[in-house]
Amino acid sequence: MYAFFIFVLFTFFTFVYVTYYVLLFFFFFFFKQKTAYEMLRSLVGSEMCIRDRVSTQSTGDTTGRGMGCMQSTLSDEISITEVLNKCDTGDVILFHNEACMTYLTKCCTRSYWDHVGMVLKFSDRPDERILIESAGCGVFLCYAKQRIEKAMAEGTVLGYRQLVGGSGGVSQAVKERMKDEAQLQVEKPYEQCFGEIFKAFLGQDGDTANSLMKSMGAEWAQGGENPDSFFCSELVAHLLKVGNVLSEEKDANMFLPKDFATQDNSWIIRAEKEAAAAADKSADPNEAMKKPLIRKPYQLKHETKIVEGSATDDSEKKKTHTGQGASMIEFNGKSLTIASMLDAHGGDRKKVAKANMEAFETISNKA
Predict the structure, then answer these.
(1) Do residues 194 and 265 lie in contact, with contact meaning Cβ atoms separated by under 8 Å?
(2) pLDDT tens readout for residues 9-47
(3) Adjacent-strand bridge partners of 190
């Protein structure tokens, strides 16, 4: 009788646990998609198809504000001009939007951040730095300069994390591998499998929930990655894994935007702490095997808030850069200018965005 009572109690709490996350994730997924489909076009070159709507008022430095794990993790400040001058392939840009709906996303993922993208450097010109992101219209490229300026003008808080690699820095070979892989992902659709995002959401606190779904036969919970479509943080994780910066310990589709921040509940931060603790308990062979998710000697520096900068920086920001996008590059085996690279991926994205919007409206109308 006692065993039966324990079994019933366990089953009840398991049901409540899973139901809680399913309902929470439903709202997270719905509003995440709605935000993605509302993004506006980029000012130059490529189409962004989607828009992260934000409040019209600047947020300023929100460090220390917010609820619990949604507090800002930013430290220090860096101007847009400085970011563009120093950023390189593999660096990460974190986004914190102020729209009410994004707070539901941040609440569900227990994060200050709701979006993430990666920098790609194709030329030495600061105004030709590129951001690769994935959102409602799929994987797209845009000029980092205009993307950052526009986001900040709309009130979005941005965090910059520089990828460093020891005394010798990140090798050119690693950067080229990530750039080559990034080129292959452009125009792939936004994550098509609901379960893959669900997997990342359920896996925030460990493997218990996903293991339960796996035992119930959920295909997406069986492990592995599907490189045919990406959500934003999955794309960044995938590129870092191809560059051998991120270990194979976790699937790319287990990463959320917060995992690229220095939050205590970030997988990368937790892995670092566990590895440090394991070093102190090396007598236990199982503990000693724990390693950081970011391979040595690489590390992502603490996120720094991107700001307007000085009067000189502001003048530079407003300046129209003559010849932006004129640099010649190799893209998917073809020689073309950066501007042509961005323009070449605009037309198809319009079609994808229109199809996505129509599908989204159909689902909304049925709801």
Answers:
(1) no
(2) 555 555 555 555 555 544 444 444 433 333 333 323 333
(3) 230
Q: Which residues pair with 141 in a beta bridge?
A: 132
Q: Residue 88 is encoded by which pair of tokens?
A: 């390189």
CB 109, CB 258: distance < 8 Å: yes
151: left (phi over 0), alpha (psi -120 to 50) or beta: alpha
pLDDT in tens, 77-136: 999 999 999 999 999 999 998 877 788 778 888 899 999 999 999 999 999 999 999 988
Q: Are 261 and 238 in contact (CB under 8 A)?
A: no
- Cα 41 → chain centroid: 19
Are 260 and 266 spatial neighbours (Cβ–Cβ below 8 Å)?
yes
Distance CA 122, CA 129 (A): 7
Q: Are 144 and 129 in contact (CB under 8 A)?
A: yes
Sequence-ordered list of residues with C-beta below 8 angstroms from that of 10, at least 6 positions apart, any chain: none
In order, the DSSP letters of 161-199 are E-EEESTT-S-HHHHHHHHHHHHHHTTPPB---HHHHHH
| Measured CA distances, 93 to 50, 128, 170, 193, 236 (Å) | 17, 16, 17, 25, 10
Q: At which residue do the structure tokens 């003559």 appear?
A: 322
> Which conformational region is residue 249 in: left (phi greater than 0), alpha (psi within -120 to 50 degrees), or beta?
alpha
Q: How many CA atoms lie within 13 A of 277 on its CB side?
A: 8
